[in-house]
Amino acid sequence: MTANATRVLVLNSGSSSVKYQLLDMAKAADGGSAAGVRLAAGLVERIGETTSRLAHTPLAAGGGTRETTGPIADHDAALKAVAGELAADGLGLDSPELAAIGHRVVHGGLKFTAPTVIDDVVLKEIERLVPVAPLHNPANITGIRTARALRPDLPQVAVFDTAFHTTMPEHAARYAIDVATADAHRIRRYGFHGTSHDYVSRRTAELLGKAPEEVNVIVLHLGNGASASAVRGGRCVDTSMGLTPLEGLVMGTRSGDVDPAVTFHLERVAGMATDEIDELLNKKSGLLGLCGDNDMREIRRRIDEGDERAALAFDIYIHRLKKYIGAYTAVLGKVDAVAFTAGVGENAAPVRAAAIDGLEELGMAVDASLNAVRSGEPRLISPAYARVAVAVVPTDEELEIARQTYALVTA
Ligand code: ADP
User: Fold this and answer.
1) Sheet containing 226-232: which strands, arranged edge to edge?
2) Which residue out of 192, 221, 296 has the highest number of ligand 1 atoms within 8 Å of its CB and is therefore the one to mutate?
3) Same domain, 221 and 279
């Protein structure tokens, strides 16, 4: 790696998509959590279909998004197309300024507690985790293989969604089921969205003018998928997602917590197959299952028009959130801040107001005018008198992956 190699390509490979960002991390070493300049970003979707689409935005070069449609057969073709777009902006993958490629990997099990340079052994271990992450890890592996083939000489780093949660104590991570059975099948709570919880909890500490070690934060990552975490002094002590991303909060299309006996009941009484139940709970439940919409904007619009199903879906969503805020307050003992992040958390003021409403006894309150401000910056929305800071802290998983990747390869 040359001394002026300061760029990191971040790849988030899904089963039929690749999201990517190219960042320059030149100032990242000393610049706090937000350092890093985005040079380009884009998305390839519907890989393997005839209607694949590549949308590339050359942020550094200026100019709008370039779109190409047409068949992109596989991840290899997708990455080559991305490389072509980057090269057109003078940012090609063969550039000596590229320091590393950082890959989002969803499941790192218990072994991967930190970002890891990928070699054959590491890749094998990520493959060994496919049974616990059948929907995610195979796509991540394909992305890694493709990128390694394209630039075998370049460090490739895996940044795991689960890593931040590996600090959870055993009493939070274990389910109360037979230990031998659980261990034989690696059944335990792993948690997800870790890169976001990590980044947002640190940014929240910064917003309070403190070091991460000095504060306890409840992070509410509310996107289409949603999870809460309790972070004590910079270390995760509990999180709402479990063996899979199904557990916990009500999400766009996932149920979150249900009595596990619901699945037996659906099998025995409704005659549903395991895969059908899986699909029901992961893709047809949550806000979508409750009211037919999974987008919070649409749900709020319907509520404003007096739609009762949308109102009930919203209330169920908020009730679950409150339960986790209460639970994590008890787990942490003392809370310095509650941070809202991701699509819903950053944008939906009514969700923030409703989730915190009535929690004055816990030291939590939201100031209506601060809550109404729209901004892309981290900000406080609690009144000055509140004992607990309530904050909106935009997440940036790509920046965090780039930061961790760059820190590892320049260490
Ligand atoms: P993902 O989990 O797919 O990364 P995001 O974090 O981008 O999701 O969040 C997507 C969700 O954010 C949308 O489904 C929508 O419900 C919500 N959202 C985005 N913008 C707004 C807004 N202005 N008001 C309310 N909700 C919003």
Assistant:
1) 235-239, 226-232, 216-222, 337-341, 389-392, 379-380
2) 296
3) yes
